Amino acid sequence: MRQNEPLYVISVAARLLELHPQTLRKYEREGFVSPSRTAGNLRLYSSSDIERLRQVKYLVERRGINLSGVQLAMDVTRRLRGIRREVQSLSDRNNGRLDYLVREIDALLELLGTSPDVE
User: Fold this and answer.
1) Can you give the pLDDT at residue 99?
2) Which residues lie across from 36 on neighbouring strands?
3) What is the pLDDT of residue 6?
4) Are 92 and 52 in contact, with CB atoms under 8 Å apart?
5) Model confidence pTM above 0.90
6) Could you tell me which of 50, 27, 119 has the C-alpha nearest to residue 80?
7) What is the full DSSP assignment across 84-104?
């Protein structure tokens, strides 16, 4: 199964995330996700959408960050993942000498409520 394949209607996504469907609509308006739409205009969420929404939920509920701060944290997450990919590639070519940077980036991503391998 592909990470970006639209699979879940809003009611299922809301149940998976333990959020109200209206909250998912709000997060869509804020630009945190852009679910696909069916011909009948139903929202379809992918696994990637669900993971992003889990991070939003974590940042809001567990870290007490407002939605503006969540947007910043999501941008930092995206940039850290890109840096991680580059460092990992360099580390692989240099016999793992940069592994400590990968571990530090992973720790920062964990603080942001996400894993390094999820897009």
Assistant:
1) 84
2) 44
3) 84
4) no
5) no
6) 119
7) HHHHHHHHHHTTTTTHHHHHH
